[in-house]
Design goal:
- The protein has 218 residues and is α+β, with helices and mostly antiparallel strands.
- The chain has one domain: HIT family, subunit A, CATH 3.30.428.
- The strands form two sheets. Strands 1-2-3-6-5-7 form a six-stranded antiparallel β-sheet.
- β2 and β3 form a beta hairpin.
- The structure holds zinc ion (ZN) (2 copies).
- The site of one zinc ion (ZN) has 6 residues, from loops.
- One zinc ion binds next to loops.
- One of its GO terms (molecular function) is single-strand break-containing DNA binding.
- InterPro entries: HIT-like, HIT-like_sf, Znf-C2HE.
- It comes from Saccharomyces paradoxus (Yeast).
- Pfam families: HIT, zf-C2HE.
């Protein structure tokens, strides 16, 4: 079985997976931890209907789909917030400053979600089974290993839940999208917007500093 289908068993039989990756499932969805998390907290919501699971997200996510899955999106978002609250505290120096994150975001779930959680899909998904990403916006992870990983969440390659359904917008071919956003697009720090051009290892070091300037382990 190709790695493109590595998510399939979470769709067909989440009850058989007991390695801690499944955080919730019912008849409609499985919510799992991404096995290659690109941030501190990176979850996937997988619809369990085979018909939906086989569909391309930009084609199948319409108003009805969003209504049906919104509650699961909300609960995954809350999971991300609780994960952060349990594991980290915001450093004192950032408590009262009017920085990008705006004070102690771990005291205010709405603010945290608005500033620090990203929900959406990849315009060219690498995994065959339809999935929605719910990810904290730190990109502080050993699994974040290359430009493609970073840009897939930090450019127009990533389509936000709020921007779905995609009414009338033409995306271009998969190859065009990948060239524009994953290969040619500069690496821009998601905290301070500094441009790292093509220098992934510099960005990676910088992300480490950014993260540690805001958060410390409890
Ligand atoms: Zn994906
Ligand atoms: Zn920065």
């Amino acid at each position: 079985m190709s790695w493109r289908y590595a998510l399939k068993s979470y769709v067909t039989s989440p009850e058989t997976i007991d390695d801690g990756t499944v955080i919730y499932f019912d008849d409609k969805v499985s919510i799992i931890k991404d096995s290659f998390p690109k941030s501190e907290c990176h979850l996937l919501i997988l619809p369990r209907s085979m018909q939906l699971s086989r569909s391309h997200p930009t084609k199948v996510i319409d108003a009805k789909f969003k209504n049906e899955f919104e509650p699961y999106v909300d609960s995954a978002i809350s999971h991300v917030f609780r994960h952060f609250q349990e594991k980290f505290r915001v450093k004192k120096s950032h408590d009262d400053e009017d920085l990008d994150l705006g004070g102690d975001i771990l005291e205010d779930e709405n603010k945290f979600v608005k500033k620090f959680v990203r929900v959406g899909i990849h315009s060219v998904p690498s995994m065959a089974n339809l999935h929605i990403h719910v990810i904290s916006k730190d990109f502080h992870s050993v699994r974040l290993k290359n430009k493609k990983h970073y840009n897939s969440f930090n450019t127009g390659f990533f389509i936000s839940w709020d921007d779905l359904p995609m009414t009338g917008k033409k995306l271009g071919t998969d190859k065009d999208i990948e060239t524009t956003y994953l290969k040619k697009h500069d690496l821009i720090c998601c905290y301070c917007q500094e441009n790292f051009s093509n220098k992934f290892s510099s960005l990676k070091k910088h992300l480490e500093l950014e993260f540690n300037s805001y958060f410390q382990l409890k």
